[in-house]
Amino acid sequence: MRKGRARDYAGGMPSTALILAAGLGTRMRSRLPKALHPIAGRPMVQHLLAAATQVFDQAVVVVGPDMPELERAVAPHATVVQAERLGTGHAALQAAGLLAGSGGDVAVLYADNPLITVGTLRRLVAARQEAGLALVAMRPADPGQYGRVVTNAAGDVDRIVEWADATEAERAIPLCNAGVVCAPAAELFALLRQVTNANAKGEFYLTDVVSLAVTIGRRVVAVEAPEAELRGINSRAELAGAEAEAQQALRAAAMAGGATLIQPESVVLSWDTAIGQDVTIGPNVVFGPGVTLEDGVEVRAFSHLEGCVVKQGAVIGPFARLRPGTVVGEAAHVGNFVELKAAVLGQGAKANHLSYLGDAEIGARANIGAGTITCNYDGVSKHRTVIGEGAFIGSDSALVAPVTIGDRALVAAGSVVVEDVPADAMALARGRQVNKPGRGFKAGFKGKPAR
C-alpha cells in the first residue's frame, strides 16, 4: 500500500472510490459523454481518478450503456453499467455486487465534480473514521438549487433535503451538499436498498442514505471544502468556469515553482505541463498536453507547444509552433512563424523564421534559413531529413526527404535538394538564371495598372 492510501482501520480492508459517470450531459449538447469533456487538456473523469487513486486503494466507475469510449478512458479501473438512469442512489447501487463483500470503506464521487482535491478526500476519510458516515459540504456564494445540509444541535448532520423538496426555511440554510459520501461498503449498500423514489423528481437519491443512517443511530458528519473544488459541471458555461479554476491553479503552481508568467491570465497550461525554474513565458502562449520546459527556457508571445521537450536555455517564438515529438536542444532558437513536428533541433541550432521542419534531425549549431521546408511526405509515407552539425541551409530551400545534409555543408539559397550532400560540401540545386538584355521596362513605359 502506498503512503497516504486509506484503509479500514479495524480490518485493513481496501478502500474504494466509486465514481458515478453515467450521465449523458444533456445540457452539454454533445455526443461525447459528459465525463470525457476535457479540463486543462485531460478528460474530467481522469482528473478525478488521479486524485482518488492517491487516497483510495481502488476505483470503480459507473458508466451508462453504450459508452465504450468512457470505459477505455478509465481503464484499467473496473466499470459497472447503469442500464437505466434512475438517480444517483440507483447508480451507486449498481456496484453492490462488486463491492458489498469488500469490507472496506466506499466513497461515492462524481465525474462531473473533477476538481475535488486529494486533501479534501483525505479529510473525508479521516472524518469517516470518527463517525458512521461522512459527507462533503460547502457554502457557495449562490446556493441556488443545491441540496441543503440540515444539522442538529451538536453540529452533526441530521439529513439532506433536495432543493425541490425543501421548505423556504430549509432553502435559507447556507450549508449545501456536494454529493460526496463515505461509509463502510456493506452498510452503504444496505442503506441504498432502503432508498425510495418518493420525491419531487421520482429518483433514487444517494443523499437519502444520510437520514436513513441517522435513523439507525449512526453519527453523520460533514467535511467542508471550498466551492471552487466542488463545482458541478453540467453545461458548457460551467465547463468554462471549471477550466478557469484549473488554469488559475496551474499558473499559481508554475509561478510558485520559479517561473515568470509575464501576463498570467493569458497563458493556457495543460494538466501535465512541466516547467523548470527561471522559465519565462510571454503573453498568449498555449500549452497542449505533454510539454516539458527545462530551466532557463524562454517562450515568447503567441507560441503554441504540444507534446515536446524544450531543453535548458532555449528560446521559442514569438509565434512559434512546436508539435508532438519535437525536442529543442540546449540554447537552441526557434523563431517567429517556425513550425517543428517530430523534429530534433540540436544544441545551439537556430531556425529563426518562416520555416517548416517536420520529421527532421538537425545537428548542433546548424543554421536554418528563412523559408526552409523539409518535404517529409510523398503522398504515401513520411520520410526523415538529417542535417549535420554546423550545416547552413540557405533561405527558401526545399529538402526533399529522405535526404541527409552532412556536417558543415552549405545549401545555397533557393535550392531544391533531392540527393544527399556530403560533409563540408556546398549544394546548388536551382534553375540557372538567364538575363535578357533590353527586355526590361523602357523609360516612360506605362503598363496597365496593377489590380
User: Measured on Cα atoms, how large is the radius of gyration?
Assistant: 30 Å
- Give the uncertain stretches in residue-range form: none
Question: Distance N terminus to C terminus?
Answer: 75 Å
Helicity range of the residues? 10-25%
Description:
- The chain folds into two domains: 16-229, Spore Coat Polysaccharide Biosynthesis Protein SpsA, Chain A (Alpha-Beta Complex); 244-427, UDP N-Acetylglucosamine Acyltransferase, domain 1, CATH 2.160.10.10.
- The chain has nine helices and 35 strands.
What is the fold's blueprint, element by element?
Elements lengths: L15 E5 L17 E2 L2 E2 H9 L5 E6 L4 H7 L3 E4 L6 H6 L2 H4 L5 E6 L7 H11 L4 E6 L9 E4 L5 E5 L6 H4 L4 E9 H8 L15 H8 L4 E5 L11 H21 L3 E2 L12 E2 L4 E2 L4 E2 L4 E2 L4 E2 L4 E2 L2 E3 L4 E2 L4 E2 L3 E3 L4 E9 L2 E2 L4 E9 L1 E3 L4 E2 L4 E3 L9 E3 L4 E2 L4 E3 L2 E3 L4 E2 L4 E2 L8 E2 L24
Parallel strand pairs: 1-4, 1-6, 4-5, 7-11, 12-14, 13-16, 14-17, 15-18, 16-19, 17-20, 18-21, 19-22, 20-23, 21-23, 22-24, 23-25, 24-26, 25-27, 26-29, 27-30, 28-31, 29-32, 30-33, 31-34, 33-35
Antiparallel strand pairs: 2-3, 6-10, 7-10, 8-9
